Amino acid sequence: MARKGIASDFRSQTTQYDKFKVYVDLLPVGHWLLVFLDNNSIVVDDDIALGVEAIAFDDAKNLDKAIAMNSIERRNALANPIFSSMKEGFQVIKAGTPGVYDNVRLFSGIITDNGRFIYPTSFPDLSLLWGKYYHKNGTYALGLSPAYPYYHENDINISLQNDDVILAMIADNNADINTTNSEDNTEQRNEKWSGPLENLVKIYNFCKAVLIKTPRKLGLMGFEIIETPPGHKLQKSTALQEEHRLIHGAIIGSIITNLNDFEILIYPGPDMLKVPHILKAGEVMAVKKGMSEFILYNPNPLELAKISVTVRKA
Question: Where are the extended beta strands (E) located within the chain?
């Protein structure tokens, strides 16, 4: 059976809040849950409306990410065979003057004294190397470049290859633009959803305390954890007695759960300079902006402190 709680991913959280709204709309006037919402200035309809706006940003984020991935695939399809060809060209240049690597270095190749090539791994660095390699090759009269035999015998047009590298660089730039747009839309989504998520956490912590004898009712309210998204994992972390632990890679918008029967402190950020959040026994809190790293502090002198939080897979 699924554990009752708040989902770790944004879309599942909005679904949970939608289900909670359906539950709340059927409650009679004066119900204890309605009183709680009123006392805490939580307007469910307003949160749902913000969720709709956040979903629009999430859709835009996903579209930009998909476009960026397509651009990267196009970039790789164009450039990777050419970069492999360039490496074969370097081997021909090296073989043309055995043991002497001056020509290799004239073509901007990086080669050790024992003849081992060292190539960059990123696309920008490889395209920069290609530009130097291609330019140097063009300084030779026809047939005199030390790389000429390779291109001639394998019927490779280096000028057409350069055209494809230029197209690949355009695709890479487009990928960067769409990736930036995706990150911006993620930021906007998180800002829109931060208030509703904070309210959802308050609602859950209160209802869990009230329904401690009948937790089944939490499921009727929509509080049921859904599978952790790909690329993320639910991590359990501990801190020794009266010690602290730095947690890395927490997902913004996911949930920290106090798995202890005593309260703990959560410090936002990688140090203990900010005011901590007191997380009571069994309660949850949202991972907010600036908390991709946070510190778990265990004030208990006798017991190990345990939390669960969704983090990026290593």
Answer: 232-239, 244-247, 255-258, 264-268, 277-279, 284-286, 294-297, 305-312
DSSP state of 145: S
Query: Quick one: which of 228, 86, 78 has its CA closest to 156?
Result: 86
Of the chain, the percentage scoring pLDDT greater than 70 comes to 98
pLDDT in tens, 126-166: 999 999 999 999 999 999 999 999 999 999 999 999 999 99
Distance between first and last Cα of the chain: 28
Angle at CA of residue 208, ends 297 and 235, nearest 5°: 45
Cα distances (Å, whole numbers) of residue 133 to 5, 81, 91, 107, 145: 58, 15, 13, 5, 11
In whole angstroms, give the CA distance from residue 285 to residue 312.
18
**DSSP secondary structure code for residue 117 in this structure:** B
pTM above 0.90, yes or no: no
Q: In this structure, is the dihedral angle defined by the CA atoms of residues 114, 116, 120 and 121, taken in order, positive or negative?
A: negative
Q: How far is CA 27 from CA 6, 32, 42, in A?
A: 21, 9, 15
Helix or strand (DSSP H, E) at 54: helix 44-96
| Burial status of residue 269 (CB atoms within 10 A of its CB: 0-12, 13-18, 19 or more) | middle
Only one residue has tokens 């004066």, namely 30
